[in-house]
Amino acid sequence: xxxxxxxxxxxxxxxxxxxxxxxxxxxxxxxxxxxxxxxxxxxxxxxxxxxxxxxxxxxxxxxxxxxxxxxxxxxxxxxxxxxxxxxxxxxxxxxxxxxxxxxxxxxxxxxxxxxxxxxxxxxxxxxxxxxxxxxxxxxxxxxxxxxxxxxxxxxxxxxxxxxxxxxxxxxxxxxxxxxxxxxxxxxxxxxxxxxxxxxxxxxxxxxxxxxxxxxxxxxxxxxxxxxxxxxxxxxxxxxxxxxxxxxxxxxxxxxxxxxxxxxxxxxxxxxxxxxxxxxxxxxxxxxxxxxxxx
Length: 294
Fold this sequence. Notes:
By secondary structure, the protein is α+β, with helices and mostly antiparallel strands. The chain is built from 9 helices and 9 strands. The protein is globular. It starts with a helix and ends in an 11-residue tail after the last helix. The mean pLDDT is 92.
């Protein structure tokens, strides 16, 4: 049951991963003026990840692709995974509380697939960015989630406007209410309560999304993914050539501290990945290579 849909979703996440990896390596190759242009072009290191159930049986895995020390990207990870098995007691309780699925205790099987991306940039003028989309299935329900959000340490209003406008363009064919709803959702989700501030300038986000029409929900999820490159690449191309000061770099490192705090304290994907036994290096690839707290 649902095998065709699972396969289609997992294949799409792999296709999107391949497109993004190729585009990011092309950015590295084309960066021939500006800071770091005399460095070696970065390349992704690719590693297969595996996961085992408590009894030692196969429980899925994925592909971790990380680039470090490039011309444009200081660290960027583009991971995909497809995992399955049974949810542990803590995960069952969290799922039942959030989704209203009391039957999880009787049949805690699950399947999940998705793509997760975080990019930390060399140049402080180039914004950091996050994107993920995913599908989750249990015998009791299925749903999609994900989105993308921009995290500049030095904000440019025109960059923020472009990022949001591109996302709106991709979401509007699914109905005019989608973009404002998902934008508001992102503003709420990517907030850091203990700092009383947002971690960036927002984007789009949805979680536990299920209208009952799998094809329509999958199409929306695909367009969230398709919006990412046209929303982000022009910003990189424009800002990567700018010079920057030591103060600019310090601002970037302090801002990265906010990002690390959010991902370790609040991010649901981080918590789920660690609680279900996925490769911790893949789960924590979102953390910046360097950060600063003052």
